Amino acid sequence: MAKEISNHIEENISYFHKTLSVDRNFDIIYRVLYIGGRKSCLYMVDGFTEGEVIQKLLQSLMGNQPEDIPENAHELSKKLLPYGEIGLAKDADTAIRMLLMGFTLLFVDGYDQAITIDCRSYPVRSVEEPDKDRVLRGSRDGFVETLVFNTALIRRRIRDPHLIHEIMQVGDSSATDIAICYMQGRADETLLETIKNRLKNLRVDSLTMNQESLAECIYPHKWYNPFPKFKYTERPDTTAACLLEGSIVLMVDNSPAAMILPSSIFDIIEEANDYYFPPITGTYLRFSRFLTFLMAIFLTPAFLLVVSMPDILPQWLRFILPKEYVNVPFLWQFLILEFATDGLKLAAVNTPNMLTTPLSVIAGVIIGDFSVSSGWFNAETMLYMSFVILANYTQTSMELSYALKFMRIIMLLLTAAFQGWGFAIGVVFVFSAILFNRTIAGQNYLYPLYPFNGKEFLRRFFRMRIPHTWENQEK
Fold this sequence. Notes:
The chain is an alpha+beta fold. It is built from 15 helices and ten strands.
């Protein structure tokens, strides 16, 4: 049972000092003062509080006489605190949780409630365009690690009272803030209630990995299927567009990414550049992305197939066959390059900016040129793997890129083992992994292709004009 706040100030100070370990936590600040002759105590977390606001509040409170002090905390918060975001906490657990969220607590002798003052000021980086979701034309802002800033970026784009931002806390130790964003009347009410219930019944110590921890908790099914169940974006304009289309967005404090659901494979492949250009250009970009999506899966297994079965090639395509063979089999060449590219990615992530140029020289000259001349790899193998690597970067979703990599490796192994039959089995396996996948709403992953919806299918493949109406005005 939660401990209630006492109306004796000394009991409250003793309990909060012991619970918060004030003598050991240098960032837990307290101040004993007198308001109208009554002993009071102020608690705050250093780095979370606007100092100027607290100073003005203290000047206002300490200038009162004993006859000006009301008999309860509710009246004091209404009459003597010239600040908008004021609340009351009746039990100690609630007060401690709010203090650690950044609220300032005020205890006054004779009051059995704590006054909570929201004058938080979180450390935050500047709102800038995310590195992963860049656009050639459009807005250059992006989400940051502070939740209230992110919801403000969405509210700035959707000035509609039907936009709802609900907040919940998840995690016994972390008490991480999660915002559930949706358009009332457009979002799927059944899915919305399901998500809320799962979050309310979620028992976890903390969301260590932010969205990924949350995703694994609310949708633990089919973990073995690598295709992503959610779409992630760091762009407020993309998030706002998805909300207007009826999607539900989950935003986690301390994370600069929004989780959009439900998401089919067509939702995940889409990107903002499709809508910042005219319809014909946006359609071309979309088709290019779909084509590279398919080639990223099938190009290297198809080359391995024609190398093992050259007779299936017509004469006019024989030029794609390797001119010379090296000591390393083609399967192992592809597998080595698959893992080597991941090693280069990790090296690039962990390389300081001042050393990126030497890393590029090593990767491009030594690994690229010398590996061919030393007899480890064929030039054709390097060419096709280079295309596959570039094709992976056309997808904004890293989860989708790695799903394509896993499917490609499975197809390489099957093709090397069973040749033509292995390639056919691999194609069936890839499409089965996509076809039998489900979104969090239970919808098929290939919707609107399956089940087929003609209007939605055309909208996914062709960039349509923005619908609008003209209002005739008579002079």
